[in-house]
Fold this sequence. Notes:
Radius of gyration: 56 Å
Low-confidence stretches: 808-813
CATH topology of the largest domain: Rhopdopsin 7-helix transmembrane proteins
CATH architecture of the largest domain: Up-down Bundle
Largest sheet: 5 strands, antiparallel
Number of domains: 6
Strand content: 15-25%
CATH class of the largest domain: Mainly Alpha
Distance between the termini: 132 Å
Number of helices: 25
Structural class: alpha+beta
Helix content: 55-70%
Amino acid sequence: MVQFSLLAVAATLVALAAFVWRARPGNAINCWFAAFTMFVGCWTVGIAGLQSGTYLEVWGRFTFAAAAFIPAAFLAFTRCYPTLSRWPSPTVIRSTLVLAAIFAFMSGFTSLLFYDVSMTEQGLARKPGSLYVPFALYFVITFGGAIALLISKWWHVQGLARAQLQFLGSGVIISGAGAISANLLLPLATGRSTYAWLGPSFGVVLVALVAHAIIRHRLMDLRLVIHHGLAYALAMLLSLAPVAVLLAFFWPRLSSHLRRGELLIFLAAIALVSLLVPLTKDLAERVLDRYVYRTHANYQRIVREASQVLTGVLELKVLLPFLSRTVAASTEAEGVGIYLQAGPDFVKASAERRHPEGRFESPERAPASVAELLVETRQPLLAEEIAREGPSDGTRLGWQDLTRLNWSLVLPLLSKNAVIGAIVVGPKRSGDPFYPQDLDLLMTLANQAGIAIKNAQLYAQVVLVNEYIQNIVATIESGVVAIDPAGRITLFNRAAEQLTGHSSAEMTLQHVSALPASLSEPLLTTLDDGLGRTEPDVDLPGAGVTRPVICTTSPLRDPAGSVLGAVAVFSDLTPLKELEIERRRAERLAYFEVLASGIAHEIKNPLVAVKTFAQLVPRRQGDERFLDNFSRIVTREIARMERLVDRLRTLSRLSERPRHSLDLRTPISEALEFLQAAFDEKRIAVTVDLGDAPRFVAGDHGELEQLFLNLTLNAHEAMAPGGALEVRLAATESAAIVTVADTGAGVPPELLERIFDPFFTTKQRGSGLGLAICAGIADAHRAKLRVANRTGGGAIFTVEFPLTAPVTAPVQA
């Protein structure tokens, strides 16, 4: 019996050595530990051979040869594990290995270590040779040095490595101390090896502690996998322990009444029945559970499969039926229904009735009492629990509705701690109640389902809004281009295709630089700085035609404000340009009509006087007084016509002179300075506020001075003596605004729209060209000239100029 036990220990040690070596064959740690364990296993085999009583001399030599390498291999292992140490040096390791080889050779081929091995009544006996004491010293010193090194490393490390060394060192020290005492020191002291079989038995301790360190602390980065089959086999063997105890108790009677063959059959039958009981029990339970509709759900598998679907599906029409089937299959309930919140009500979204003869009902709307109770508690409603505790005033109506509809359980669907729906479950077909593990499973599913359903609802809203946007973008006449943070085009609508001449399939996911610069540059700038901008009139080449467009870009931001892209909306201004040309043409024709009519009227009056005098000249040649009047009147009317022609020439040359950047305060000041004497003569108080900062505009100095001269002169002529004139200059971010306000009679409201027409005047002696010239100068400078009546009396003229950057340029008078 001892021999078989030792062989089992040896086989375990050899298996451990093979396992460690195969894990990392090229690693020095694994190789030296495998060698150490293998030599211990061989030594154990030798001891088992000695216990057989045959070939004692051969087994003795084999035992000592294997034992000689144990301390050397263990010393080499401790040098490497867990990290390489300076001591012992490679020279010391090689020396111990050479010494081990010498002792192994001596034990195998000489009698210097031992001789005269025999088996006596007291046990195994042998005589020590002359090298036995040196061998014992070598073994103890080398093994002790390795143990000391192992303890030193354990003292200096922390964490996982310390735990590994602790269990490894404990196993080696316990087994080594037992083996050295029983197989080395005791024979040295007594001259007998009576307890030689006891030393290898301590190898069980080594194997157990090393296995524990591998399983719990990943010793040498090893992993020992315990399969379910092994665990099941151990469980079945343990179940035979009570049978073995009973057999031991009745064994004397059984052995006296049964023959050996009958006894073997009896023992085999008992063992077979004991092993088959767990299997037949499981089979009977499955058959009975299926018969009474009882389920044993695999909670982990159900949750894993449900999580895959609930987190991967975003369509309610797929999500809700799957959820109903999963709940029904895991509980074998009579029916399952899912209700989603729609305003104040809970409306049925999905229902499954698995037992046609059951009383489970799923109305189109959940009872208000159940919905209110669920929203209030936000906890599962279990009809059986409510009935057991006794319905209160707040739960009685809800419990009645649950009973009427045959709803055993109502689970809330939560999203952001708010109830968005409910899962109603009928009673189990087996008649069993809902156990705590059932509720844990269903609440886990309900919690995940609440988030999944909310995501699906939001996804449906996003899809709907995206469809709206796609339809709008596809049908509008403006081009729309969107880009992502990398500058790739993600949206390119039909109008953009027509305006640029590129197809959507061609441009999608292309870099925006593939578009004309008039589109790509504003988009990239907006993407870079996150600011929207508008380009009012840029040229867009495309499809062989260059079009004027207005382009507006805007950043696309997430809720945190980070820029996720940019979008450009651009519209073709060609129709507007054409309408503008037509409008200007019509205005020009009307203008020329008024101008021609005014010129005809203005020239006709002096021509009538000249014609009349010319007709009277032949008859009144001798009348000197007539001739003096003729000369004076004709000269006056001709001068009048010359002034008219000069003003018309001024009106026609407004846009011919070049424009320079100038300070708007200068022409205003010069115009006021020119008329200062006229203001003083008429006792008109002039208030001027031009500000301290220069206001630069692009214009002609002479024309601007003429503009303000005409406006202030118009105000001078409109006021009675003692009036007041206010001239102010203000500025916004993009414009300079000049106001000229007087205290005259103002402009009749019905004439405000005609005040800037040529030859239109409200004065008795006005030509009607002064304000027309002002309007022409303003248009030439891209300014806006407006007139309005003041509340307290008088008129106010406003001129708004676009600002420009200051540039040094010559001032032209």
